């Protein structure tokens, strides 16, 4: 296995890096597996030990391997800190294509979704069911109407930016001036532009652990190193974050403080203020994802955005997709005007044009007289479904849950430790599609449930499936 092909003109340590990376990527070296000692590798490769040390140091800095005292050098078990290789090799680029990698469990979920099987209950999909999405009556619009809309510049449709500004003022009592808003094709486009313009390959970013950001391939594709920071009942742990900022020279902190995806946690006001102060002290910008902000079950006073606390240091992402459906694909980014201008210019250079159609329709929805009443009704229905699902899961022995204060995700933790591969398979066998914790973190002990998709008719079905799955998992664990 440890046979090194030495290429002319290529430093030996680079060849060692590429060999070890190839073993990791093709599965010959598995997560958590220990590598031979430095002395052994030097013997295998017939090189000086210092050359091996240099190669391993590079792999540690890239996040592919870790050194643990008493355990030696092992393959990183998660994606934390992983970035791309330092040398252009097109075959390797294809092998490490982050966008092409789909976990087998998720592949099976997607296959089941395509089959439209009545046996399957979809609580995996991250959007509202059609029966809850508010319906708005739009005036007759002609093709010419859209062609005549001239109020769009590089930042997006001006009337829509003005409407978003008014909604923010009404909801949170602070102003996001229209000139500070960049309309994007969903929240993920805003995130993509930030990665391309404000960060560089090799930069370190701190996120919550667990986090939906961990599941996104765009970080690995951009060569950004993610570092997870644990959370407690108040949100991201600041002692751990400060240590991370110092240790890894973190360039940005990305958080989802209100109804966090996937845990549903809401960061306390005390923690929000302390987070802002910490990042100010280290001059590290914060990216605040607030896409669930309008699906609150509590007063807006209790979930004041970080952007309101620190307008200059916080980049703020909002979206209408969680209310109007993902096909709307309307998001926005609030940043200093100079930053937004650069992001808009970058989007134009990448030819990521923004269609006027969804922007006009989104503005018509926001300015509809019934918008406020319909979103209030929506929140009421979502909360009712959340409470019903919470009541079911909290009564099933083995699961630990907490009712969220907004959003539409319930995070259920298995009290008896790690769920094994065969346990996850039981969910698929029983047709209960949930998001497993391992797509959000290295942990394998929790599930994310989209409770908005469980209406009264489906509640009893959900309860039966959940009880049956729990019984099987419990029986299998006792049989060990």
TrEMBL record:
Similarity remark: In the C-terminal section; belongs to the class-I pyridoxal-phosphate-dependent aminotransferase family.
Protein's name according to its UniProt entry: GntR family transcriptional regulator
Matching Pfam families: Aminotran_1_2, GntR
Domain of life from the UniProt record: Bacteria
Keyword Flavoprotein in record: no
InterPro entries per record: Aminotransferase_I/II_large, HTH_trans_reg/aminotransferase, PyrdxlP-dep_Trfase, PyrdxlP-dep_Trfase_major, PyrdxlP-dep_Trfase_small, Tscrpt_reg_HTH_GntR, WH-like_DNA-bd_sf, WH_DNA-bd_sf
Entry-linked Gene3D superfamilies: Aspartate Aminotransferase, domain 1, Type I PLP-dependent aspartate aminotransferase-like (Major domain), Winged helix-like DNA-binding domain superfamily/Winged helix DNA-binding domain
Assigned keywords, A-Z: Aminotransferase, DNA-binding, Pyridoxal phosphate, Transcription, Transcription regulation, Transferase
Sequence ranges assigned to domain HTH gntR-type in this UniProt record: 10-78
GO molecular function, one term: transaminase activity
Record carries keyword Cell membrane: no
């Amino acid at each position: 296995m440890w046979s090194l092909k030495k290429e002319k003109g290529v430093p030996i340590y680079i060849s060692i890096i590429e060999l070890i990376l190839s073993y990791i990527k093709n599965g010959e070296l598995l997560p958590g597996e220990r590598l031979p000692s430095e002395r052994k590798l030097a013997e295998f490769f017939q090189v000086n030990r210092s050359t091996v040390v240099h190669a391993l140091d590079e792999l540690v800095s890239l996040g592919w391997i870790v050194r643990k005292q008493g355990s030696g050098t092992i393959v990183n078990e998660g994606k934390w800190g992983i970035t791309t290789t330092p040398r252009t090799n097109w075959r390797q680029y294809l092998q490490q294509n982050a966008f092409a990698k789909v976990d087998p469990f998720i592949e099976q979920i997607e296959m089941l979704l395509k089959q439209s099987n009545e046996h399957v209950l979809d609580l995996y999909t991250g959007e509202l069911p059609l029966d809850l999405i508010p319906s708005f009556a739009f005036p007759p619009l002609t093709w010419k109407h859209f062609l005549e809309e001239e109020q769009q510049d590089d930042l997006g449709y001006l009337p829509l930016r003005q409407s978003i500004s008014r909604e923010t003022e009404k909801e949170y009592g602070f102003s996001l001036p229209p000139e500070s808003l960049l309309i994007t094709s969903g929240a993920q486009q805003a995130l993509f532009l930030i990665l391309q313009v404000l960060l560089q390959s090799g930069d370190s970013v701190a996120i919550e652990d667990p986090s939906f950001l961990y599941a996104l391939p765009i970080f690995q594709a951009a060569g950004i190193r993610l570092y997870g920071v644990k959370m407690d009942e108040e949100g991201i742990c600041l002692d751990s974050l400060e240590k991370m900022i110092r240790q890894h020279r973190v360039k940005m902190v990305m958080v989802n403080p209100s109804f966090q995806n996937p845990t549903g946690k809401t960061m306390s006001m005390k923690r929000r203020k302390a987070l802002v102060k910490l990042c100010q002290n280290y001059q590290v910008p914060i990216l605040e994802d607030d896409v669930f902000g309008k699906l609150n079950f509590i007063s807006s006073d209790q979930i004041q955005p970080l952007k309101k606390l620190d307008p200059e240091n916080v980049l703020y992402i909002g979206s209408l997709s969680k209310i109007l459906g993902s096909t709307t694909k309307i998001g926005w980014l609030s940043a200093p005007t100079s930053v937004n201008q650069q992001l808009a210019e970058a989007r134009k250079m990448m030819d990521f044009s923004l269609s006027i159609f969804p922007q006009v329709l989104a503005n018509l929805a926001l300015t509809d007289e019934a918008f406020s009443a319909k979103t209030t009704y929506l929140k009421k229905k979502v909360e009712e479904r959340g409470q019903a699902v919470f009541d079911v899961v909290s009564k099933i022995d083995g699961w630990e849950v907490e009712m969220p204060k907004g959003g539409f995700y319930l995070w259920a933790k298995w009290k008896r430790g790690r769920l094994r591969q065969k346990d996850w398979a039981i969910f698929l066998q029983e047709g209960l599609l949930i998001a497993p914790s391992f797509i959000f973190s290295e942990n394998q002990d929790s599930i994310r449930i989209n409770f908005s998709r469980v209406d009264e008719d489906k509640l009893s079905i959900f309860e039966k499936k959940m009880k049956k799955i729990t019984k099987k998992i419990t029986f299998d664990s006792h049989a060990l």
